[in-house]
Amino acid sequence: MADLMLAPLTPLGHALPEQRNIGPVTLTEVIDSALGSLTARAGRLAELAERAAAAGLPLPAPGQSAEAAPYGAFWLAPESWMVEAPFASHEDIRAHLVAIFGDAASITEQTDAWVRFDVTGADLPRLFERLSNVDLARAPDHAATRTVIDHIGCYLVKRGPTRISLFGPRSSAPSLWHALETAARAAF
Amino acid sequence: MTQENRISGGQIDRARTLRFSFDGHQYEGHPGDTLASALLANGVRLMGRSFKYHRPRGVISAGSEEPNALVELRAGARREPNTRATVVELFDGLSAESQNRWPTLAFDAMAINDRLSPFFAAGFYYKTFMWPRAFWEKLYEPIIRRAAGLGSLSKLDDPDDYDKGFLHCDLLIIGAGPAGLMAALTAGRAGARVILADEDFRMGGRLNAETYEVDGRSGADWALKALAELRSLPSVRLMPRTTILGAMDHGIYTALERVSDHLPAPLPGKPRQILWRIYSRRAILAGGATERPIAFENNDRPGILLAGSLRAYANRWGAAVGKRAAVFTNNDDGLRTAADLAAKGIETRVIDARKGEEVIDTSGRLGLKSVTIRTPNGTETFRCDALGVSGGWNPNVNITSHHRSRPVWDEAICAFVPGADGPPGLSSAGAAAGRLSTHGALESGAAEAEAALADLGLAAPARDLPVAEDAPIAITPKWYVSAGKGRAWIDQQNDVTVKDVKLAHQENYVSVEHLKRYTTLGMATDQGKTGNVLGLAVMAELTGRSIPQTGTTIYRPPYTPVAMGALAGRSRGQEFKPTRLTPSHKWATEQGAVFVEVGQWLRAQWLPRTGETHWRESVDREVLATRKSVGICDVTTLGKIDIQGTDAGAFLNKVYANTFSTLAVGKCRYGLMLREDGMVFDDGTTARLGDHEYVMTTTTANAVGVFRHLEFVRQCLCPDMDVQLISTTEAWAQYSVAGPNARKLLQKLVDQDISDAALPYMGCAEITLGGLRARIFRISFSGELAYEIAVPTRYGDALIRALVAAGEEFDAVVYGTEALGVMRVEKGHVAGNELNGQSSALNMGLGKMVSQKKDSIGMVLSQREGMTTANGYRLVGIKPVNPAEKLTAGSHFLEKGAAEVAANDLGWITSTVHSPHLGHAIALGYLKGGDSRKGQRLRAANLLAKTEVEVEIVSPHFFDPEGERLRG
Amino acid sequence: MIINHPILGPRDAQEFVYLGDAALIARPDGLAPGAQEAFHDYLYLRDNPAGLHRELWYHEQGDRSWLVVTRNTLTHEITQVELARDVARSLGRSK
């Protein structure tokens, strides 16, 4: 049916993303990233690294994230990364990554598996000490780790001292947002 | 008269007055007061009634060890029983009530127990068990239940919030007295990341309660100066009002911070308390010491306090317990109390046990009036309204015992000190380590911090120790006074007396663990902080053994009582666990759907239409409309796992009982997954999307467990297989479209041809919907011609609306999990009730699916003895002989005439539904030898529901047994 | 407890799921003669040592690595942590 047009909803269930200021922090629902998981096929890590280097796609070390426009990536598991790219240009991110890596990697679209909330502001450790066991104050910039927030498994990427990106399961977006709001009101 | 016993000095803010009430009487106090200090300043000595005998009791301590002064704090939903008045920070408007008394604190009818005390002596509770059973049920239990407990619960929901949190440090210092402050200064100056936690709202520990000098200024002033320096160090975090509850493994400590308890109510959005999990590399216990009493006759009258507490009230809070005082001591520390009281103008008599002087009795029913003193020169009565007692100080070793380390006896101070085998990384300093002088505390605080810094690889700063007193305690043991026949109290909270310990000894309960349980010594809210050592010292004397030979009980977390709400944190009510919402949730909510929790997911259970008043009406309609035309169901919750790699097929052969490597690209297959013990673990459909790419579906409930299992096989069993896994459950919104008109409906939306030729039964394809990438799978759970269609989740809401709109011309319905359940039972498909963890493929009628040609998980043990018996359980269909009768899941099958005993049990009904298609109840179940019982009539008896139905055993395939519809 | 993950460093044991004895890695060949007996022993016979125990932990809220953790069951002291995949390979497991 050629005239079918499906309109997307944000993870929080609205047409437009949410933003909320609480004390010194701002919570933002971010919908302009495409995500794809990238995992080396057995024995082909070196080839994967070569192809990534040629394409300018970063493959950060365990516990790290890195950015090199248009791509960013954070470490997921041994020989496995989550690749980020602008949604507008990389909506079908899998096709882009397959073009780079061919059959040297297993690639899976993950864009809509996750909700991304960016948390910005001063004194983020004071907020996150009520949420996660990550030692945010001592974590270096670009640290990336999986962590549990209010029983929800998330990836936490420290973009810098005043910006954190949280990736949580999309179906739990309202619960995760609520946890962030509640903790922010309690902490500040 | 207000604050009749308020004397000069103290760390209270006299410029401000706080009003509070106790048992309805109005009083005044000041910021800095505790409820106990303010009551004492107002001349109130009687604060509670004891647990068993309802004896009138007053405060005996000035800290968290308090056994007596337990009150109900606040009112309404915030009423909290068993709150220690000694640690309640006074606030304006505070209201408290005494407890365990009726009708009033001064006249308590239950005090009759005191007269009956011979019947309630140690072991009373256990002895009741030995008497005739009828006595227990009819006599003792009702009496004990009525009498038991101290305070009463509000029985209302706790209106407050509690947070949990996580902190990290190099060095955790527990206690901010002289040792803790010195340790924090030493480590903080070295740049270590320090957390200094203290249960008190004012840091400084005993420095706030004493009059001697530190570095030429008052101890309290020195503490303020030290705290100011610590506040200036960015790596130091001061946590007053924070109790370290316990030592977990590997440097993890739990702590409770009372954020709002000093306020009438928490501020908006703020928690009442926070339960912290502290990760430390090293820790120092500087938790001080607790004074212990000497037991003598009637030593429990209001006005009799521990000597150190008596002077703490005078020095820190400017509160005198009475106008005339006495001190009974066996050590020099007691003399300090006498000197400090005298300096405040209170006449004080010293009774020094080391000189052969002792208190043999007291008078004053609701408050001390006099003490009877026996000296080498004779017996005399001294009129006084306050008595301080010092039997020595017990280091607060509790936390060092949390990993079962036993404290060791230190003869020099006559007390237990921490054992050498405490929690790794934890050392002790100050009074907690038995260093009772101020100098000893400061010196050991510095020394332990230096040792910790060495462990942390940090350089210690030059030692800068303030000058302080270093007097020995000069103690001579004195545990109890042998005098007349009256009772001498050891554990005031549990009303344990010297006589009770003697009775335990006489009845051969001589081990400390038996002593504790027989007499209840050391139980309840104070955990024996004041009475334990005294009790076992008495037992040691009775058995003629030394105290080290007698031993001591040890301690468990928590150090002090914790509100249940703090342990729950935010996980309460609607927020007990996070919620997962399906892509159609918003639309379903608009339709008034009734939701059901499936794990964390909320799924539409049925979607009532206007006029439907009973759930069965909605469900029957959904089922009939689907079978007649077309129905739509959100199946996003099924687990979806992307499996790629050149060995993906071989991997699936390993984890599934049936074969997948032969599946053609573009095809789906039902897979049966076993546990290694041969029982069915999970099932679902797996599609082959490419040569080296599959997508597996799991049941909703097992998605996480299956993923974990697959990773186990991949990493632990087949480490060289080229296979990669990732969950895609959340990435795709997936809907089942089922029914004779399913294809017609979908063809309106799908850009490609999905005719039977283009997409045959069990086919799958990557397609587009108006140009949008999508996936389609021709699979069926309902038994109808059916498809599952998936789009990126963000389009899921739009797709359900598009499907409903496109379905209008077919009278399409959206159906919920209940209709799904009806249709799967009609088709004889197993689900959660049949996948119960103790059923094999053979039990389910799927035995032939277990390939014997390859080595899959569970294959070998699925064939083991006992699993393959011909008379084993088999999945059968069940219908009532009388179609009007209902069936109950859980009913057991019995032959006609067989007794309802386990030996005659033939199996049970697992799932039952009303089939609107057949017009009567149908069920699935497991029946012994079920394959050969088709057509038989049995009884289905439910002894719990007291129902019994005559049933006929039939094929589990009630509907379209040949499967013609789904291939249509 | 803290488990010192070979790749990620110290992590709270709360992030892990416990399975049990690391002997589960040594799965017998299901097609070999005597498989019934071998699987019986593999699945049901376990040592229960008061002391060092090699056991499987899964970093479910982490990088999904299966680990072999050597833990003293009396003290909870952890003396060694290995990637289960490396252990499996060292035992000769492959595909």
Automatic annotation (TrEMBL), chain A:
Gene3D superfamilies linked to this entry: Probable tRNA modification gtpase trme, domain 1
Name of the protein in its database record: Sarcosine oxidase subunit gamma
Species this chain originates from: Gemmobacter aquatilis
Species lineage: Bacteria, Pseudomonadati, Pseudomonadota, Alphaproteobacteria, Rhodobacterales
Automatic annotation (TrEMBL), chain B:
Residues of the GCVT N-terminal domain: 585-854
Lineage: Bacteria, Pseudomonadati, Pseudomonadota, Alphaproteobacteria, Rhodobacterales
Keywords: Oxidoreductase
Family: Belongs to the GcvT family.
NCBIfam families referenced in this protein's UniProt entry, alphabetically: soxA
GO biological process: tetrahydrofolate metabolic process
Database matches in InterPro entries: 2Fe-2S-bd_N, FAD/NAD-bd_sf, GcvT/YgfZ/DmdA, GcvT/YgfZ_C, GcvT_C, GCVT_N, Sarcosine_oxidase_asu, SoxA_A3
Domain Aminomethyltransferase C-terminal: 874-960
Protein name: N-methylglutamate dehydrogenase subunit C
Pfam family, one: GCV_T_C
Gene3D superfamilies reported for this sequence: 2Fe-2S iron-sulphur cluster binding domain, sarcosine oxidase, alpha subunit, N-terminal domain, FAD/NAD(P)-binding domain, Probable tRNA modification gtpase trme, domain 1
All copies of domain SoxA A3, residue ranges: 485-570
One GO MF term: sarcosine oxidase activity
Record flagged with keyword Oxidoreductase: yes
Automatic annotation (TrEMBL), chain C:
GO process terms (BP): tetrahydrofolate metabolic process
InterPro entries according to UniProt: SoxD (IPR006279), SoxD_sf (IPR038561)
Top-level taxon: Bacteria
Annotated Pfam families: SoxD (PF04267)
Protein's organism: Gemmobacter aquatilis
GO MF entries: sarcosine oxidase activity
Name this protein carries in UniProt: Sarcosine oxidase subunit delta
TM region positions: none
Gene3D superfamilies: Folate-binding superfamily
